[in-house]
Design a protein that fits this description.
- There is one protein chain.
- The chain is of the alpha/beta class.
- It has two domains: 16-34 and 294-399, Aspartate Aminotransferase, domain 1, CATH 3.90.1150; 49-290, 3-Layer(aba) Sandwich (Aspartate Aminotransferase, domain 2), CATH 3.40.640.10.
- Helices cover 38% and strands 17% of the residues.
- It contains twelve helices and 15 strands.
- The chain has helices spanning 37-40, 49-59, 72-83, 96-113, 134-140, 143-146, 164-170, 196-207, 277-290, 295-316, 339-348, 371-399, and strands at 16-20, 23-26, 31-34, 89-93, 121-125, 156-159, 175-180, 210-214, 238-241, 252-256, 321-327, 330-335, 351-352, 354-356, 360-363.
- The strands form three sheets. A seven-stranded mixed beta sheet has the order 4-10-9-8-7-5-6, sandwiched between helices. Strands 1-2-3-13 form a four-stranded mixed beta sheet. The chain has a four-stranded antiparallel beta sheet with strand order 11-12-15-14, with helices on one face.
- Helix 8 links the parallel strand 7 (175-180) and strand 8.
- Helix 3 (72-83) packs parallel to helix 9 (277-290), helix 10 (295-316) runs parallel beside helix 12 (371-399) and helix 11 (339-348) crosses helix 12.
- The protein is globular.
Length: 400
Amino acid sequence: MVTPLMPTYARADLVFERGEGCWLVATDGKRYLDFAGGVAVNALGHAHPKLVEAITAQAQKLWHVSNLFRIKEAETLAEKLVKASFADTVFFCNSGAEAMECAIKMARKYHSVSGHPEKMRIISFDGSFHGRTLATLAAAGAQKYLEGFGPVLGGFDQVPYGDLEAVKKAITPETGAILIEPIEGEGGVRVPPPGFLKALRQICDERGLLLVLDEVQTGIGRTGKFFAYEWSGVTPDILGTAKGLGGGFPIGACLATEEAAKGMKAGSHGSTFGGNPLATTVAGAVVDIVLEKGFLARVNKMALLFKQRLAELKDRHPKIIAEIRGEGLLIGLRMIPPNGDFVAAAREQGLLTAAAGENVVRILPPLIIGEEEISEAVNRISAACKALETSVAAERGAAE
């Protein structure tokens, strides 16, 4: 019998009643160190006082008016994002999938208004994840997500992640853009080879293509830069972001240069809820905090410390942890036992993590973590590793 809440998730039997900074408190009173972060959403932890203040004040004034009218709060947030990035203009929506839908439409529209409507194909990469809509699923091309949903939307050509020669071979007269995550999150915290994004930028410039970045997970300070593309020294033409932008409140954004967005006129795209006063007020507070002097420097300092401690754990538990990946506080642990076993073992130790592809466990702590939370996490990860080692040894003994 189906449940009232549609069973589309394999949920852990765990219910939380409140959050405090880096911690979540379950209904039974047990405290969990939240290093899943709502899958990279709770960038500033739970119940951050400045976010609580911002949403409370705005909720007492105005929640929603629709985009039939100017929205001062959205204009202010757009100005902040433009100032902090490559972009000249921003479209607001409600999620990462919507941000990437906008990016895909914008890339196609650009070539159409430029006199090349045939240039509608987009090169994307295996292991990528761009959302759950039909277009974003087609962009990623993962069969496990596409199965049963009918004809796959055309116009996407997947190539191996990090393979420059494969990209070059995939370009045809119908190619209009290259779409990539600067670091694949869902795909296993995969980092491209050094210079790969720079090489893609060069190809786009030489072939008249747009470079589209999916920074839904990597954006808003997650990697130690406001956007991850900043590490590469290149800029995209279009970028989608969400997750950490609202600090837990649903909002997405598609950023673009004036040139890339030249086809997006009144009526070409829209969103009923996108950019409403409540969402953009909260996101504005998040952006202000992340861009405060010293904030990102501290993120990088904590990330370095954390990775050093994780490297020590890898040395102590070589039968459990095979590799440490990532940038900033987007960290992946490639496991030797099934990653789901580690996620469960860590949860038993009061530490929340998230699984990813390539048998990787994602570590996505709030960007506000300090040395105390890092030490606590390391202790709990070590305890989880020991529990798995004991379990593996017991299974081996039973088999013999």
